[in-house]
Write a structure and sequence with these properties.
The chain has helices spanning 10-19, 36-46, 62-72, 87-95, 108-156, 160-171, 192-197, 202-217, 246-261, 279-291, 322-331, 334-349, 356-376, 422-461, 468-475, 479-490, 494-509, 517-523, 529-540, 544-549, and strands at 2-6, 29-33, 50-53, 77-82, 98-103, 179-186, 223-227, 234-240, 266-269, 273-274, 302-303. With 550 residues, the protein is α/β, with parallel strands linked by helices.
């Protein structure tokens, strides 16, 4: 810290310097002035933290100096030392921000206490300033995410605008009566190379998209672009007031996106609406226009609610071909799989229009079919395997990879111009189903081997209490799965298999007349002789005793 001592008497300035232990207060520099004008010059040059001044001085006195400090806004602490016990001087001191008024001759303890108060206040203000700065930095860091959430809520949460209206208008310089258009950009309309590049870093893609868009929007306060937090693949643009320029602006934005990311994108444009309360309706129209665009042709990248209606054509349902696909998978024949896929693609190729909305429906149908195959086909439901996973266990379920049960996701490949490529889709579907067939075939063989291991385990341990729960724990499979697959493999329930093994062993033991029936029952795993006899009679048609006599 720095202190400026102002007094026209040199011996007074020397006395002040001698009376204080300056390092104890953290003060490392002391400067002096003998009048108010000199003090003003040094305040501008040295920027002291504390000024200790006399009141009666030539050229410019202490009152004028205090007034100048007050009016100039310099953040210094002011302590007055005066030889005049004058009420007007004391009042002026307080009026112009003086902290203490000390009388000469100077009392060392009073001066030390005045300095202590001044230093404490300076340190407290510094702490408050640093805390405020830190909070401001934190707010600036989280501000983009905050506004992303805020704008997203305007289109997805009815009534959210009521709480946000004042903040939005203050932050973005809007006023009552302003209107906006909401534009929806589909990240999935990017070139395949871009989707592949950002497949595992979706956040970075949206960050880049929003940055490029805002470079065109923010300088002239034309609008704001942000990620739509309630959607996996949408970027939102809120554009206000200069609606005649929107189309040309979107073209420039797309040029910028191609330059920065190597791809152009598709935009859905909503009608102008009151901001912020009409943003939700404008968004709904923009999204509908984007989802109804025809992916088989490329006339434009910009779609509005005024687009001509698409012809109503009944689209084939993937579920109608499920049995055909299922038989091909079971056959594990590449020719059968290609034929099944060709049948499906012929039906799809006859459509004049395929929209993103239709693709979403097919995607859900294929996912549902794959879930059923994973559960029902031999080897498809085994715990711990790759085919029976729940959707949340898969590595990725974002807009570029659909939730799929253990296998690569169903995709709908677009070409560099954003058109749906039916030839690429057929190739991918063939490769996908061939991979599933191979995986399920391998799982089936592993399951068969596992069931035979369980059968051997039963044959080796038939003579003790043996439960399905124990077997499940031994082989790390569920009881339900073992029951189902064991019967598929051997044609009988596991409990029936165990009883048949035990009774077969018992028949051999009954040939030894030295063994009592109860002993035989115990030796083959039955603690209860009556229950043993009941099971024996069920399987052999006669009691153990009659069998022995025969």
């Amino acid at each position: 810290m720095k202190v400026l001592i102002v007094d026209d008497e040199r011996h007074v300035r020397e006395a002040v310097k001698m009376l204080v232990d300056w390092p104890a207060f953290g003060i490392g520099e002391i400067v002096e002035a003998d009048n108010g004008d000199e003090a003003i010059r040094l305040i501008g040059e040295k920027r002291p933290d504390i000024v200790i001044t006399d009141m009666k001085m030539p050229v410019r006195d202490g009152c004028d100096l205090l007034r100048w400090i007050q009016e100039s806004g310099h953040p210094v602490r002011r302590i007055v030392i005066s030889g005049h016990d004058d009420f007007d001087l004391v009042r002026s001191t307080m009026k112009y921000g003086g902290q203490d008024y000390l009388l000469k001759p100077i009392d060392q303890e009073e001066l030390a206490e005045a300095l202590r108060k001044a230093v404490d206040e300076l340190r407290r203000e510094e702490r408050d300033r640093l805390l405020s700065c830190k909070r401001s930095m934190e707010m600036n860091r989280f501000k983009p995410a905050y506004w992303d959430r805020m704008f997203s809520s305007l289109v997805s949460e009815p009534g959210a605008y009521a709480a946000a209206s004042d903040m939005l208008k203050e932050e973005f310089g809007l006023k009552a009566g302003d209107r906006c258009q909401v534009v929806v950009m589909s990240a999935l309309s990017a070139a395949p190379a871009v989707l592949e590049k950002y497949e595992r870093n979706r956040d970075l893609l949206f960050f880049s998209l929003a940055n490029v868009c805002n470079e065109f929007l923010r300088p002239d306060n034309l609008g704001f672009a942000c990620r739509h937090w309630s959607s996996e693949d949408e970027l939102l643009i809120f554009y206000w007031n200069r609606f005649a320029e929107l189309q040309s602006l979107l073209v420039r934005i797309n040029d910028g996106l191609e330059l920065a990311l190597g791809s152009r994108f598709d935009f859905g444009i909503g009608p102008a609406a009151d901001f912020p309360q009409g943003a939700g309706d404008s968004y709904a129209a923009a999204r509908a226009a984007l989802r109804q665009r025809n992916l088989l042709e490329r006339r434009t990248r910009y779609f509005g609610p005024g687009e001509p209606p698409k012809p109503a054509v009944a689209a084939p349902q993937a579920t109608d071909y499920e049995e055909r696909f299922r038989i091909a998978l079971l056959s594990r024949s590449e020719a059968e799989i290609r034929a099944a896929v060709a049948d499906w693609m012929r039906a799809v190729a006859g459509l004049p229009v395929i929209t993103p909305e239709q693709l979403d429906l097919w995607r859900m149908q294929f996912q549902a079919m794959q879930s059923r195959w994973a559960r029902d086909l031999p080897g498809g439901g085994r715990e711990g395997g790759t085919l029976g996973r729940e959707p949340e266990e898969t590595a990725s379920s974002g807009p570029y990879r659909d939730p799929a049960h253990g296998a690569a996701p169903f995709t709908f490949p677009l070409d560099a111009e954003g058109r749906l490529s039916l030839s690429l889709w057929e190739q991918e579907l063939n490769a996908r189903l061939a991979a599933l067939a191979a995986a399920w075939g391998g799982e089936r063989q592993k399951d068969n081997n596992m069931m035979r291991e369980i059968a051997r385990y039963i044959e080796q341990n038939y003579n003790r209490e043996l439960t399905l729960q124990e077997i499940a724990g031994q082989f790390h499979l569920s009881r339900e799965y073992i029951s189902r697959r064991f019967k598929q493999e051997f044609g009988e329930n596991l409990s029936d298999f165990l009883e048949r093994i035990r009774i077969g062993k018992a028949k051999r033991l009954l040939r030894n007349p030295a063994l009592r029936i109860a002993e035989v029952a115990n030796m083959v795993g039955y603690a209860d002789e009556k229950y043993f006899s009941k099971v024996f009679k069920k399987l052999e048609g006669q009691s153990p005793n009659r069998y022995r006599k025969g």
